[in-house]
Amino acid sequence: MKNLVTVGTIQFSREHFLDSGGYGHVYLGRYDGVEVVIKRMQWLRENRKEVVDRELTALQNLSHPNIVKFFDSLSDDDFTYRAIEKCLTSLDKYCRQPLLYHGVIPMPTDQQVLHQMAKGLHYIHSQIVNDLPNLRSQPLIHRDVKPKNILISCNNPSVIKWVDFGLSRNVVNGSRSFTWSQLKGTDRWLAPELIQSDVKTKVRGSQRCDVFALGCVFFFFLKQGMHPFGDDNTAQGNIDNGIQVNLNQLSKDHFAFSIIEKMIQNEPHSRPKMSAVVDALQ
Length: 282
Known about the structure:
This protein is of the alpha+beta class. The chain has helices at about 50-60, 90-95, 100, 110-125, 190-200, 205-220, 235-240, 255-265, 275-280; strands at about 5, 10-20, 25-30, 35-40, 70-75, 80-85, 85-90, 130, 130-135, 140, 150-155, 160, 170, 175-180, 205. A hairpin with a 2-residue loop joins strand 2 and strand 3 (about 25-30). The longest helix has 17 residues, at about 110-125. It is globular. The model has no long low-confidence stretch (mean pLDDT about 90).
């Protein structure tokens, strides 16, 4: 096989390239004989090591049916290679390319898809182990909730899986908010308070920023690629101004309308906690 890379039990070919992002390239490969996805990250670059280490810590501590399974992380002189569960595609591609995926992927019902997304993020926020409130690890804020970071598994029926924890942040001492020295996340999925705070150089965020973004993702999935605040060029500006230009495209009688409307409120404290979102989608 050409361009074969082997690092310990991780093996892949550069010819089997799948995708790329801000922190590396993704390949189809094998880990200890199992077909997996390999995420290759150049950790020696400025600020990369912090991101690589943060994601590794999160993946090692997260264990939930709606979180992508982590196998191992190995390094050589230049790169870190992370082996994670192979999935079929992202929610973003599924919604943007319906002719390619619809009828091919054995998806659960729409309500089950939203419920699985909600359960995964609720787990990230609370870190309750096996629904036992006395067994917890460190709760997180994801900080980059968007359709590209939600995957669709190879199971039948498919299962929704959260991925990409490079921007995640621990919740410390019970606080559900924090200050960022720089704005982080992805345009069109940023809660309004993040943009409004940015002018002061210190960006105040909270788990409710994740809730806002997930409400937008819910709508994006249900309306097959439509954002509740507009198209790719106008959505973030409309978010900043609280203009929900497309929300009326979802019927008020729809099972998810009420919870989405609450999740994308301009005022953070008006948004529900993820536990309430999970309950609403039962």
